[in-house]
Design a protein that fits this description.
130 residues, 3 helices
């Protein structure tokens, strides 16, 4: 994505531009994860020659997919709201946006870490069956 930073942009304006781009990246990654979960479960079935995915695995991935979709909805909604940051007239207004952004960043990173651990566990199980 092309980021246009101008010489007259304040440091805060630059931060907001980077944050907007990062939010779009998070949204794209969460969309990818939604599709990847389905593909991973299909791959697991084929690798293990098992037509039924064990309940435990299905439950964990269903829960993670639901949480992924909730986070996606939250970040998508916030990214639309974040466009209003240009209307801020004072630092307090900017800080409201930045604090929420930071909270979402931590949620996103936590979600990715949990998903990666779940995915690693699935790979280990599948490779044990090979």
């Amino acid at each position: 994505m092309n980021l246009k930073v101008y010489e007259h942009d304040s440091d805060l304006e630059v931060v907001h531009k980077y944050n907007s781009i990062e939010l779009k990246g998070w949204i794209n990654q969460l969309l990818y994860i939604d599709t990847e979960v389905d593909n991973l479960l299909k791959l697991y079935q084929k690798t293990t020659n098992n037509s039924i995915i064990p309940d435990e695995i299905q439950k964990h991935f269903s829960k993670r997919k639901m949480q992924n979709n909730q986070l996606y909805d939250t970040i998508l909604s916030y990214s639309k709201t974040y466009m209003n940051v240009v209307e801020c007239n004072d630092i307090q207004c900017d800080m409201v946006y930045l604090n929420e952004y930071e909270r979402l960043r931590r949620s996103y990173q936590y979600h990715l870490n949990r998903y990666q651990k779940l995915k690693d566990d699935l790979y280990k199980r599948a490779l044990q069956c090979v």
